[in-house]
Structure to design on (637 residues):
């Protein structure tokens, strides 16, 4: 698939260049009908590929029997919402919801506060140890889960934080804070530092400048950091699977696995749960995606 | 970073008086920078306590023979002291050139490199192709964009299960292949097809990020450059090669680095797709997790040693990447 998409882009633009031929005038940026058709065809195929696994999951979640995924044709005739009712009433769905919410919101809150002050400090001030500090932030982002998993497990169990919300929140902060600090630094860099100087001249302390002048201006950047933390904490699997032991304290990412890892695989219920989880998060994602992408690449273009 | 101006106070550093003594310098530095240190203090504490200390501790563990049978633990009311002992660099030696080192480390290492290279290449080329398509004036391109980022919008742990249903024996993909009278591989059981499906699912999940980042990069390329190139008679390919690609360079270098780091550390997809059933399809990260938490007794020391090796590989790669970029006169944002 990769080769086809790439190769076909070349002819698309090539015809574009041949367009100003006598007889027919095509404006710049517009392509010939044939090229447009090819573009549409590729995009439609790609969209179907992107859509299908998710749509399939939704479809399977409507089949009442756990082996329905093997003969999906039968689902049409006996479509039902029983799976959803069962998941909401009989399983620990709401416990998982509670855990997930506590952990993700806690991570978001703590992470954003910490990374905002850090981002401001590295954006505005050059202090001894600055370069080394930025290097540490960068390296922290590439820690494989495996490096910290074992020692963190031991430390958390010594602190009695295994199977506790706080433990997981702190662990997630270590993964989100470095990235968010970079992100916030990028955003603070775009705020002219004449504003800081004006604040200083008017007699504000450095903290006052930060809290009263810069933070209100940085709201979009803060929002991006918050979205990023939220989505990261929501989708994390490895730490949650290892550090949360009691089944009422599973996050969704772990809870979903309990449907298959037990002796029989209740795939219909699992599909229903997956859909229930996916809908609000995806809606949230679509709501914020534009900011998220701008924020993520802003670091890339500005430095 | 070369700017030697303290932007909060507007003072110039650099052309200073002759160096005062160490004590004075410390006090002076403290007075001048105390607020900067105060602001980074929280992150330093969090990183120090939860990253650097565990890292040091983890490194210490790799020099021991710790596993779940000899570590400190509590069973009921009995507290059992840790009994593991210091064995030096034996773990590393064992992993790198021990008896079955090829099966345990090098095969996973090679597969991890192949996995990272293939996935990032696929992410980048498909993402770039789709971004170029979406950057045209097309009817319905907002709709296309919204659909195409769906794999990113839905949490990975949800979509991977969708793929598992589809790839299962008797699932929709094999039924479809059967109606076309094509061979129906055992996607989740046979080693080659396990690897194939892992790359396929990861590609599916990772393309939207690349696509959106590159689309942002494409839109920030100055349109007058294309105009000038066209005036000079550049062909479409030449415009792509000499205007588009250079314009994308700074975004590309960042997203490729991020992509390599993320893919190298990609835990969720392989872990959720196969669980512990596919020893040969495990990349180093999931393999280290398996050693430390997926088997009994849990081998903490070896797992941590794998982690340190992984980190070393990534740091070496990143340093070379940065150096290479700097030589080509580019700034890496992160």
């Amino acid at each position: 698939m990769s080769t086809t998409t790439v190769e076909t882009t070349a002819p698309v633009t090539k015809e574009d260049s041949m367009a100003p031929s006598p007889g027919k005038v095509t404006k710049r940026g517009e392509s010939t009908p044939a090229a447009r058709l090819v573009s549409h065809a590729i995009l439609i195929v790609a969209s179907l590929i992107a859509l299908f696994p998710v749509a399939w999951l939704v479809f399977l979640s409507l089949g009442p029997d756990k082996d329905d995924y093997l003969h999906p044709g039968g689902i049409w005739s006996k479509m039902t919402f029983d799976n959803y009712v069962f998941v909401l009433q009989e399983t620990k769905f709401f416990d998982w919801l509670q855990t997930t919410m506590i952990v993700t919101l806690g991570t978001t809150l703590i992470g954003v506060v910490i990374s905002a002050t850090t981002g401001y400090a590295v954006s505005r001030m050059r202090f001894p140890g600055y370069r080394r500090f930025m290097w540490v932030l960068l390296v922290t982002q590439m820690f494989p889960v495996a490096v910290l998993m074992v020692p963190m497990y031991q430390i958390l169990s010594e602190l009695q934080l295994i199977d506790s919300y706080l433990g997981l929140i702190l662990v997630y902060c270590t993964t989100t804070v470095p990235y968010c600090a970079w992100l916030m630094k990028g955003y603070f860099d775009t705020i002219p530092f004449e504003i800081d100087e004006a604040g200083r001249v008017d007699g504000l302390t450095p903290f006052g400048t930060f809290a009263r002048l810069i933070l209100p201006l940085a709201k979009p950047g803060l929002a991006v950091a918050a979205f990023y933390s939220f989505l990261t904490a929501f989708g994390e699997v490895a730490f949650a699977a290892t550090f949360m032991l009691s089944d009422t304290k599973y996050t969704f990412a772990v809870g979903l696995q309990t449907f298959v890892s037990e002796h029989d695989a209740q795939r219909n219920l699992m599909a229903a749960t997956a859909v229930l989880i996916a809908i609000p998060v995806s809606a949230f994602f679509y709501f914020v995606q534009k900011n998220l992408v701008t924020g993520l690449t802003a670091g890339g273009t500005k430095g | 970073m070369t700017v030697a101006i303290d932007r909060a106070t507007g003072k110039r550093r650099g052309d200073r008086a002759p160096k005062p003594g160490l004590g004075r310098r410390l006090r002076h530095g403290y007075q001048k920078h105390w607020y900067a240190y105060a602001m980074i203090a929280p992150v330093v504490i969090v990183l120090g306590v939860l990253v650097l200390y565990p890292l040091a501790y983890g490194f210490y563990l790799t020099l021991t023979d710790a596993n779940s049978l000899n570590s400190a633990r509590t069973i009921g009311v009995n507290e059992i002291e840790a009994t593991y002992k210091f064995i030096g660099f034996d773990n590393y030696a064992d992993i790198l050139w021990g008896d079955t080192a090829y099966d345990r480390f090098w095969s996973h290492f090679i597969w991890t490199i192949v996995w990272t290279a293939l996935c990032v290449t696929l992410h980048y080329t498909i993402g770039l192709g789709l971004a170029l398509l979406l950057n045209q004036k097309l009817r319905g391109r907002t709709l296309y964009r919204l659909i195409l980022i769906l794999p990113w919008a839905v949490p990975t742990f949800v979509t991977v299960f969708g793929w598992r249903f589809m790839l299962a024996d008797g699932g929709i993909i094999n039924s479809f292949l059967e109606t076309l009278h094509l061979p129906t591989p055992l996607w989740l059981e046979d080693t080659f097809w396990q690897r194939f499906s892992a790359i396929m699912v990861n590609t599916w999940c990772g393309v939207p990020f690349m696509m959106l980042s590159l689309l942002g990069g494409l839109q920030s390329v100055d349109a007058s450059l294309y105009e000038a190139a066209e005036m000079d008679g550049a062909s479409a390919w030449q415009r792509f090669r000499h205007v588009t690609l250079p314009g994308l360079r700074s975004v590309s270098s960042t997203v490729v680095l991020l992509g390599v780091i993320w893919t190298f550390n990609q835990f969720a997809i392989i872990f959720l797709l196969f669980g512990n059933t596919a020893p040969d399809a495990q990349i180093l990260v999931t393999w280290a997790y398996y050693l430390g938490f997926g088997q009994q007794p849990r081998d903490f020391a070896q797992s941590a040693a794998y982690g340190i090796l992984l980190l070393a590989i990534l740091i070496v790669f990143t340093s070379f990447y940065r150096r290479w970029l700097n030589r080509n006169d580019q700034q890496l944002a992160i």
Summary: Residues 267-302 of chain A form the longest helix (36 residues). The radius of gyration of chain A is 25 Å.
